[in-house]
Design brief:
Layout (H helix, E strand, L loop, with lengths): L1 H6 L20 H7 L1 H14 L7 H10 L4 H9 L1
Helix pairs in contact: 2-3
Amino acid sequence: MTRLHYFMPSQFPSPCCQYCSYPSQDTRRHLAIHCPSRLQIWQALWSLLLPIHPFDPDKIWYSLLFFRTSPDTITAGNNS
């Protein structure tokens, strides 16, 4: 990660994501959701817990930020 590379270049020699090697990933969103290794986990959990809703990483991000489900998910669940 870029910040780790900046502050500890000997331990983190590359500014790329250490899990997927995507260049210059210094975002919490990438680390939490969009990194392919985590994205697979989120997709599996989503299909297990919310199988009738299409997978949406933005709703996961909203839930992680605000500790509640996205208003879109609630609305969609009430229409079914």
